[in-house]
Amino acid sequence: MAKNRINKINEEVRRELAMVIRELKDTRIPLMTSVVAVNVTNDLSYAKCYISVMGDDRAKKKAIEGLKSASGYIRREMGRRVDLRITPEFLFELDNSIEYGAHINQVLQGIMKEQKDEK
């Protein structure tokens, strides 16, 4: 029962966090920034947020720095939007799974094209 509750909280926090990040006016955070997943601890004190940023390594690093500097504002906004007894402290980590998936897709497309050319 508790695991189901935490899963619902994770999803709700992920949705609201994505909206808050879109509203930030920090120039270090590009428009192609998305929240991949959020893991909230059982005691609701911390939320580890996996963030995907499209761009080069420098843009990714700047985006994470921008999010870390805005973490106080983000926490306050999340406290207003999500009805939780305790508003978690947000920890941001870079997630490259979307880019990795795009790379794998390109490789597969190249293999399929080579197979068509051989026939």
Detailed description of the structure:
The chain is α+β, with helices and mostly antiparallel strands and 119 residues long. The chain has four helices and three strands. Strands 1-2-3 form a three-stranded mixed β-sheet, sandwiched between helices. Strand 1 and strand 2 form a beta hairpin. Helix 1 crosses helix 3. The protein is elongated and about 65 Å long. The mean pLDDT is 91.
Backbone shape: elongated
Tell me the strand percentage band: 15-25%
Helix and strand sequence: HEEHHEH
Number of H- or I-type helical stretches? 4
- Give a short account of the largest sheet: 3 strands, mixed
Rg measurement, Å: 18 Å
Structural class: alpha+beta
**Which quaternary structure do these chains form?**
single chain
Strand order of the largest sheet: 1-2-3
Proportion of residues in helical segments:
55-70%
Distance between the termini: 55 Å
Write the layout of secondary structure elements.
Layout: H1 2-23, E1 33-40, E2 46-53, H2 57-69, H3 71-81, E3 89-94, H4 97-118
Parallel strand pairs: 2-3
Antiparallel strand pairs: 1-2
Features:
single chain, 119 residues, alpha+beta, three-stranded mixed sheet, 4 helices, 3 strands, 18% strand
Short description:
The chain has 119 residues and is of the alpha+beta class.
